[in-house]
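Ticket #4471: structure output looks truncated?

Reporter: J.K.
Steps to reproduce: submitted the chain below (160 residues) through the standard prediction queue, then opened the result file.
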Amino acid sequence: MVEADAVSVSAGWRIRRAGPGDAEPWAALRHALWPDADPGELREELPALLQDPRAAAFVAVDADGGRLLGFAEATLRADYVNGTESSPVGFLEAWYVAGDARGRGIGRALVEAVAEWTRARGCTELASDSALDDGAAHRAHRGCGFEETERVVYFRRRLD
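Returned output as attached by the reporter:
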């Protein structure tokens, strides 16, 4: 089902694989998710993501097909992923639904598209992460069937 163009349809919107024609609105949604990032860089990353066989991106489009309402990006990770027991695993790298489109099942449908894509590649687990203090993201993950596995704080030390 996820290999086809339209993977999920609901009243007022549908989920499909992202394509090159989605770049501008998709980049704008990525910037809404990561407002501190450079908008140009967020857009420049999209062609490589679309061409990577170990990655997938899905978009939610309104019924008229004119407006992107959300997106999900995923990769296959073969390295250790915190809290998982297998390898490779699908990893939900980015997931965002525009504020005025929330509460309609779009986020859940995006995650299901990623889960199907991940299953089709032989994975038995889908992982994700979120900031420690992002309670809304934690609730959204739980609402889509994720379970919290651990809390981690990473440190670094520059050696200049």
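Triage note (M.O.): checked the attachment and the full token line is present. The two ends are 50 Å apart (CA to CA).
Status: closed, working as intended.
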